[in-house]
Design goal:
With 504 residues, this protein is α/β, with parallel strands linked by helices. The chain is built from 17 helices and 18 strands. Helix 9 packs parallel to helix 17.
């Protein structure tokens, strides 16, 4: 699914108004009806609601919603901030409220703030995505009043004070803390960054019928990976297929005390469909690997406790290096040799990335077309500390283009960053997956897909989606609190099956 900046969304609004054609007021009414439908499905008419409106079109949305709630029997109070000017659509909706003898209260000072308690639902319609500077003055005081009320807050389109893209200092600027955010047509890019989660809460996309021609024709670097995105990537196997068709991958992983990471990565590669999987581990891991994963071939390093050399890596269809690898100097030397000579698809994860961070000369040796899978801490160690998620993503885009690599920046909405500048936020996954070994499973899935001949972009996108979906299915059966990485391996098959069914 395409995503857009706030500027682009305004352009889509304008296109819809011009070409449908429809007036801006009618488009606002369409948005209000979508908002009302959510309230009707989620809140009883017995729930008291307080709507706070700003002077612009976000405030107009709030007024239109209040009218629909009021005429449907909800207990509604409406307050709006005084201003030197209000938008024309705000004024039209204000007059429509007055026409049904419903009189919103204008707020001139903080003494006009109403009491709101824990039993109220607050609708935040103060400022929308067009905000260009931090909130100040009376509006900032109102935001503080809302945040300290203890009420459930529902934001219209975007929490007031939050910007649509970069929010470098959200905790130092006044921002409404919403429990639910009813975003119109598209989620805002800022919703996908951890530092904004306490403001956004749960977000819900409400379609408002923006012109499909405009959406289809609009160019964007931003995307949301959902079932529609990856549909068709997983194909049924031919009747006479054999293991040689589906590739042979090598997983170079493990060190003393971390053989489990190596095994999980190798098992995940097999679950992802690789025809053959070979695991290269230190000698201490041989019996463990053979016992836990009898379907995996095991090659032992000459060293007992860490990796010291890897031979014949060119004969594989894809190679994964990193899970549980450790950071011994001999391992760093072996990694440097592989990076200098390898000519097959490669994924680097975990300690492979830590070794590169500790030996910066290795960074330039990573071949073009490599997939790297850092979490934010690993990424910052490699490329410098970023002040916020947006800055980190900007840097990831620059790095991906400079080195012609694919970056899977792991997190709640893992970001797959492609060398052409496109970014895909992943839609699957849950907090239960925040557990040791989860990244090893992802790496194994990636190399399993690479071995089968998927392009680096498709392998990264599909693996990230499958990894999250396996976690979601596992959590639905086992709960998030008890989820462990080995559970995810067991559910890779369920995830792939769900994708196959979606193709029918």
């Amino acid at each position: 699914m395409k995503l857009f900046t706030t500027k682009q969304i305004r352009e889509l609004d304008a296109y819809t108004i011009k070409h449908e054609p429809i007036s801006s007021y009618e488009l606002m009414e369409r948005a209000a009806n979508a908002l009302y439908s959510w309230f009707a499905q989620n809140l009883s008419t017995l729930q008291p609601i307080v709507v706070f409106c700003g002077p612009g079109n976000n405030g107009g949305d709030g007024l239109a919603l209040a009218r629909l709630l009021y005429t449907s029997g909800y207990s509604v109070e409406v307050y709006y901030l005084t201003a030197s000017a209000h938008s024309s659509d705000f004024q039209l909706n204000l007059e429509r409220l007055k026409a049904i003898n419903f009189l919103p209260v204008e707020i001139f000072s903080n003494s006009g703030f109403p009491h709101i308690g824990e039993n109220h639902v607050v609708v935040d319609a103060i400022f929308g995505s067009g905000l260009s500077k931090p909130i100040e003055g009376l509006a900032a005081q109102l935001v503080s009043h809302i945040n300290t009320s203890g009420s459930r807050v529902v934001a219209v389109d975007i929490p007031s004070g939050l910007f649509g893209e970069e929010n470098p200092f959200p905790n130092s600027n006044p921002v409404v803390r919403a429990a639910d955010c009813l975003t119109l047509q598209f989620p805002k890019l800022s919703f996908f960054f951890a530092e904004n989660s306490s403001f956004v809460g749960r977000w819900h996309v409400l379609p408002i019928g923006l012109h499909p021609e405009a959406i289809a024709g609009a160019s964007t670097s931003w995307h949301y990976t959902n079932m529609e995105t990856i549909r068709g990537m997983v194909k049924p196997r031919e009747r006479f297929a054999h293991k040689g068709i589906f590739g042979h991958c090598l997983v170079v992983a493990g060190s003393h005390g971390m053989i489990g990471a190596a095994v999980m990565a190798a098992m995940s590669a097999a679950r992802a469909g690789a025809g053959l999987v070979t695991l290269h581990v230190p000698a201490c891991g041989y019996e463990i690997a053979q016992t836990l994963a009898p379907n995996i071939m095991v090659v032992c390093d000459s060293n007992e406790h860490h990796l010291s050399a890897v031979d014949d890596f060119q004969r594989y269809n894809a190679v994964c290096i990193g899970p549980g690898l450790g950071q011994h100097p001999e391992t760093a030397d072996a990694l440097g040799k592989i990076l200098a000579e390898i000519n097959v698809p490669l994924i680097l994860d975990a300690d492979a990335l830590n070794l590169v961070a500790a030996n910066p000369k290795l960074l330039g040796a990573i071949p073009a077309g490599t997939i790297i899978t850092p979490h934010p801490g690993e990424f910052d160690r490699l490329f410098g500390v970023s002040t916020c998620g947006w800055k980190r993503l900007e840097r990831a885009r620059e790095v991906a283009q400079r080195y012609q690599q694919v970056i899977i920046l792991k997190g709640a909405y893992s970001q797959v960053v492609l060398p052409d500048g496109r970014v895909f936020f992943n839609s699957t996954g849950n907090p239960g997956m925040a557990t040791g070994g989860s990244g090893d499973v992802l790496s194994g899935i990636v190399v399993g897909f690479l071995a089968q001949g998927f392009s680096i972009a498709d392998a990264a996108l599909l693996a990230t989606f499958v990894h999250g979906l396996a976690g979601d299915i596992a959590a639905s059966d086992l709960g998030e609190n008890a989820l462990v990485a080995t559970d995810m391996i067991s559910y890779i098959s369920n995830a792939l099956l769900e994708i196959e069914i979606s193709n029918l």
